[in-house]
Design a protein that fits this description.
The protein has 285 residues and is α/β, with parallel strands linked by helices. It has three domains: 10-172, Cytidine Deaminase, domain 2; 190-239, no CATH class; 240-285. Helices cover 46% and strands 23% of the residues. It has seven helices and eleven strands. It has helices at 24-35, 79-92, 112-122, 172-183, 192-219, 226-238, 244-284, and strands at residues 9-11, 20-22, 45-52, 58-65, 68-70, 75-77, 97-104, 127-131, 142-152, 155-164, 166-168. Strand 3 and strand 4 form a beta hairpin. Helix 4 crosses helix 5 (192-219). The radius of gyration is 25 Å and the shape is globular.
């Protein structure tokens, strides 16, 4: 009896260690492009720039929007604009390269496969980042995907988007701006002093939580955790031992530097505003 070789439906193997990190500048740029999009555009798409770290992590550090038109069955990208913007970015930072593309919305759509195919020709295994620029319910849905091929025997049928781990990297100052961005409606942006005050309040709240946890462990109300204890010990050991007067001087010097930068930036904005008005008046005359 002749043996039969069954045709197996399978996914092309993909690296399970692929992950991505995104810097807040990328999210801010995407949200800004979404606000400035044309009236008829439902979403914004664009190119992600960054690098691939030695451990395989895709580090996304910058982005720019690409004009496009899309319908239910086709997507048209402005490829010339994409290449011109890429060349401009490479002149400023030659270490950055294309790592993928982004789109606003809750997830992948029917046209995402067509756009991903174009970026697959620009860079191998691009990452697809989706950002809910509307911050529905005050939360940002930010996800990253890679494409996995679905084949039947030797014939490739389609591509499936597989979500990968995503880490949003930000310092405390960026965290303040990101939290404000999620509210979607604010009366005014906080200045540096207000941002520092919010950071100190959050720091004090975290210290209170640590104090409460340590007291609960000492009193026997909570079972001790060696990992948490080691983390607290390492954190306390990393704090430099300086005298209160030296600490006050350090804080005051840093505060004076920040006030000087604010003063210089205010003067710069004033000069630019005057130059713009003078230029406008000269053109009218």
């Amino acid at each position: 009896m002749a043996s039969r070789n069954p045709t197996v439906l399978q996914f092309a193997p993909s690296s399970t260690s692929v992950s991505a990190t995104v810097h807040p500048l990328v999210i801010f740029n995407i949200c800004d492009c979404f606000v400035r999009r044309p009236d008829q555009a439902e979403r914004v798409i664009g190119t992600l720039l960054g690098s691939v770290l030695p451990d395989g992590t895709i580090d996304v550090r910058n982005c720019y929007a690409v004009p496009h038109n899309e319908s239910s069955d086709q997507v048209a990208l402005d490829i010339d604009y994409h290449h011109n913007m890429l060349q401009s970015h490479l002149k400023v930072n030659p270490k950055e390269a294309i790592v993928g593309w982004f789109s606003t919305g809750f997830g992948v759509t029917g046209g995402s496969a067509l756009i991903h195919e174009f970026y697959s020709r620009e860079v191998p295994n691009p990452v697809h980042l989706t950002v809910d620029a509307g911050f529905t319910n005050g939360e940002a849905s930010i996800k990253a995907f890679v494409s996995v091929s679905l084949s039947l025997g030797d014939q490739q049928l389609a591509a499936q988007f597989q979500e990968i781990p995503l880490d949003l990297r930000m310092v405390e100052a960026e965290r303040v701006g990101y939290d404000i961005l999620k509210t979607t409606t604010v009366d005014k942006l906080p200045n540096d002093l207000e941002g520092m005050e919010a950071s100190m309040e959050r720091l004090l709240a975290l210290i209170d939580d640590v104090y409460k946890y340590v007291d609960d462990v000492v009193e026997g109300r909570v079972a001790p955790d060696n990992n948490i204890g080691k983390f607290i010990s390492d954190t306390v050991a990393s704090i430099p031992k300086i005298s209160p007067p030296a600490f006050d001087k350090l804080v005051n010097d840093s505060l004076q530097d920040q006030l000087l930068l604010l003063y210089l930036s205010s003067i710069t904005r004033t000069q630019l505003s005057l130059a713009e008005k003078l230029n406008t008046a000269a053109q009218i005359l």
